[in-house]
Amino acid sequence: MTTKEKRQSWSSRLAYVLTVAGATIGFGATWRFPYLVGENGGGAYVLLFCLAMIVIGIPMILVENVIGRRMQINSVDAFGGSANGKKINRTWKLLGYMGLLGSFGILAYYMVLGGWVLTYIGSLISGNLDLSNPVTIDTTSQFFTDNIQNNPTLILIYTALFVLANYIILVKGVVNGIERSVKYLMPLLFIFLLVMIVRNITLPGAMEGIKFYLIPDFSKITGKLFVFVLGQVFFALSLGFGVLITLSSYLDKKENLVKTATITGVVNTLIALAAGFMIFPSLFTFNVSPNSGPTLVFQSLPIVFSHMWAGGVFATIFFSLLVIAALTTSLTIYEVLITALQEKTKLNRKQAIALTLGAIFILGNVPSTLGDNVWRNVSIMGMSIFDAFDYVSGNILFILTALGSAIFVGFVLKDEAKKELGAGEKFTNIWFNYVKYIIPIIILVIFINSL
TM spans, by residue (predicted)? Predict the structure, then answer.
């Protein structure tokens, strides 16, 4: 039997949508989106994010869906085969390899973030981080310094546990492992999210936070900010990672790609918006600055929880929500690399998983952890190892892979892309011409702005 014949398919559209939702609802929605909203004018950023999802998010989801389902193979060979009666030049597969390199880069630091979150959960449960009484920024900053930045051994242990959780699920396969786990994890995530939202919007003074979050200050809306938000949509939807290409390669040919892409974009946007409701009302209630940047979740929010009734419990629920979101995302990014390694070598699935997770841990997770302490003097392009992995993968590799994917659909696949989309003629032609002529320009502007 060929590798293609052995491939599984999602058991239902719901299973696929939940898995894609899990892939796109990670730290991008629960950590990065809230602090970017806080830094960029609240409602102004939210409005532009919703517009960006329409302008580039859903059209690009369809691009990757078409590429992935067409060949029903890994994210490298998906750029091969034949189109319109001609063999596709092998050079296009470089896009797939660039996506693999980017996936390695994001997992190099992403898993460490998972280790940070587990550290907070462990510290809350053990009492090492006591939020039963109000704490100050000095307390939370000191905790972060002592337990995150200057305790590499503890972080590596928690990161290894997070990697192990991924391994246990991945070895069971795409359907029995990823799909089944997501069916349980996503409802649990929604429950935790709902609990946190209800807790926050019922706090005294919550309305001020809601106003900041939902009412746009139009003076904050600029062309530069919109371009910046467009770039963040790539991270939010895992575009250019090879994730959607890989996941859609397991999609049945009868599935309606337009419906699944629209649902994916809408669900991702709603979850990101919901994340704001579990954060900003409480910030304004307890007079904590919303524009504290990347430290918002790890240093500012614990202050908020310490002022709440049963703050330690709600903090544990919140960080558990973060780790679930991170897990559903890391599983699918790992799968990009595992599928490619398994289908392009003679390795079986367990061997491919062990090699992928092991190599990323040693070559990525360990350096990212040590870059804050033991190797703090090591600088790459003026950045720490952790930040360099983030910058190169998120600002260069993924954007260029997405650009190449749009060009591949518009100028190589052509009519075959239209056929694969399987939508009405009018919608298909509008989408195709938009992807062919407009999307590449938008992505180039994003790329130049991100450098």
Answer: 12-31, 43-63, 94-121, 155-175, 187-206, 226-251, 263-288, 308-331, 352-371, 391-413, 434-450
